[in-house]
Structure formats: structure tokens, C-alpha cells
Design goal:
By secondary structure, this protein is mostly helical. The protein contains 14 helices and five strands. The longest helix has 20 residues, at 7-26. Pfam families: Phage_integrase.
Length: 305
């Protein structure tokens, strides 16, 4: 049953359950007692301490795992959470996003690829893959054995479980088309160069290796740091935008260029009826998966204009 939860969910639930344990001990309550009244009192204290709807809803999920599903389905608790949503609604992190062509045109100056240091080449490739609306977690799970190189494109399979994995859903397949017009920002050209440069350094099958010896596989946190540094080098205000903003920028740009919404959802790993894009990702662009490669092609090609 623990295997049904991701590591991140366990960490998130652990925080809530620790607070529940302290609350029960302080108020002399049996922590195993299934009481909607006690749960609402507990959630109210969290709300008054500044917790928002997302945190409270996460706590409800944690407590339902501990106390039973009837806690999550209780009408009073549902009503309480609806009230917190109206009083303290979750807000998207960004109201605007940056123009992808600004970053791509800067990355075009990082050329030729074989003249770049391993650090700079690694950051360039990581940022370009992130601009294909791919989760950083997905990029960190790319294995050499799952990369298929063809004359005009590269296919990357992701068989590992990721955040968007669901029973019955297909795993991501990234298709990177080659851009003959601008090889300096072509993901295929950059990836091939990276594979050649790291071939003699590899003792592992993971695509991305640490910059320093012994060149071990890196985590999504390291990828995030690389991308944030790259965005800063390209003139993006990283005091506002994080590495995750590449998804906002790429999906908003694709939408502005007229890319089909179903393709945007599929590339980003959202379900067909998902409202995630409209609620959190579709942002005005500040000027300053990808099943057939058309998402990638639109994003990269726009920087030519």
C-alpha cells in the first residue's frame, strides 16, 4: 500500500500527520478516532496559521489515508474546504511568462556545440528539452538505452513511472525532429554532440551526468538549478521565474502560435479533459509530448522569425 504513494506524497503527508499527532496529543484526543469535528478543528487551526486551500486539501488526503476514506467524503469537511477555497483561493504563481524565442536566440550563440565546455553543453541541452514542455522529472529519467536515433529525428522512450503516470495511460514518447535551418538550436544536433562528449565519461545509463568527477547521474533538483542558471544567462528574471516556468513559457507560446490544444495537453502530460492549462499555464507572454514532433517544431521554429 505504501508503494501506491510516490516519495513526494509520502513526504507531504508526513508533515501533515506529524501536525495531527501533535494536535491530538495536546488536546488529549485519540489520534485514531474518526471524528469529523476533530478534523475540522485541526484544519481550522492550520487555516488560522496561514495555510491555504492546497495545504488543507493535502491534509485531508493524508488524514483519509490514516483514518479512512469516510473522512475525505464527509459533507461537513467538504463544505469547510469549499469555504477555504472561496476565502483563500489558490493563485497561479505567474500572471505572465517569458518569450521562448528570447532564450532560444541566446542559446543560438552557444555554438558550435563541440566547442562548448561540458557544463555549458549540459545546461543548453537540459534547457532545450525543458522547452519541449517536458517535466524535469521526466528529463532526469532519460536512459541511453531508450534513445533511438534516426536520420531526421530522435525518439526518447520514458518507461519509468513519473508524476503524470496513471493506470491505463501511455508512457511519454519524446520525438525530437531535426532542424536543418538552425542547427545551433536543434535538439537533435545538441543531443548527438552531448552523447559524443560524454561517451568516455559514462559508467551509468542515465543521459545526464554530473559535471565533475566521478560524473554520476544527476537528480531533477540539479537539472532545475542548471536550467535556472541558463535562463539567467539568457536574460530571464530568475527572481520571478523558476526552472519550472519553462513549461508555462512553452505551452503558452505553443497556444499563441495556434498549436492544437489536444497536442499541448498530450505533450505536457495532461489528460484530455484536463483544465490545468487554462487555470495555471496559459499566461500572457512578455516580449523582451509531443507525439509527432509538431509541438517541438513550432516552439523551435518561432525563434527563426
Amino acid at each position: 500500500m505504501l508503494a501506491s504513494l510516490s516519495d513526494n506524497s509520502i513526504k507531504q503527508y508526513d508533515t501533515c500527520l506529524r501536525k495531527w499527532f501533535i494536535f491530538c496529543k495536546k488536546n488529549h484526543i485519540n489520534l485514531h478516532l474518526k471524528s469529523a469535528s476533530n478534523v475540522i478543528t485541526f484544519l481550522t487551526q492550520l487555516y488560522e496559521a496561514g495555510a491555504g486551500y492546497g495545504t488543507l486539501n493535502s491534509c485531508r488526503s493524508a488524514l483519509s489515508l490514516f483514518l479512512g476514506q469516510e473522512i475525505a467524503d464527509d459533507d461537513l469537511i467538504k463544505r469547510f474546504l469549499k469555504g477555504t477555497f472561496r476565502l483563500r483561493p489558490p493563485l497561479p504563481k505567474y500572471n505572465i511568462t517569458w518569450d521562448t524565442s528570447m532564450v532560444l536566440n541566446s542559446l543560438a550563440d552557444w555554438y558550435p556545440n563541440d566547442a562548448l565546455s561540458l557544463e555549458k553543453l549540459s545546461k543548453k541541452l537540459a534547457t532545450m528539452l525543458a522547452l519541449i514542455a517536458t517535466l524535469l522529472q521526466t528529463i532526469s529519467k532519460i536512459k541511453i538505452k531508450n534513445i533511438e536515433i534516426y536520420s531526421n529525428e530522435i525518439h526518447i522512450k520514458i518507461p519509468d513511472l513519473i508524476k503524470s503516470s496513471r493506470p491505463g495511460s501511455t508512457q511519454p514518447l519524446l520525438i525530437l525532429p531535426i532542424f536543418y535551418e538552425r542547427p545551433e538550436i536543434c535538439p537533435v544536433v545538441t543531443l548527438r554532440c552531448y552523447l559524443n562528449k560524454t561517451q568516455s565519461l559514462r559508467n551509468h545509463d542515465s543521459l545526464f551526468l554530473s559535471i565533475r568527477k566521478p560524473h554520476m547521474p544527476i537528480t531533477s533538483q540539479t537539472l532545475s538549478r542548471w536550467i535556472k542558471l541558463t535562463l539567467s544567462d539568457c536574460g530571464i528574471d530568475v527572481s520571478i521565474f523558476t526552472a519550472h516556468s519553462t513549461r508555462h513559457a512553452a505551452t503558452s507560446k505553443a497556444h499563441a502560435l495556434g498549436v492544437n490544444m489536444d497536442l499541448i495537453r498530450k505533450t505536457a502530460g495532461w489528460s484530455g479533459n484536463s483544465q490545468t492549462f487554462g487555470k495555471f499555464y496559459n499566461r500572457n507572454i512578455i516580449v523582451n509530448l509531443n507525439q509527432d514532433g509538431s509541438f517541438t517544431r513550432n516552439i523551435m521554429s518561432d525563434s527563426i522569425l
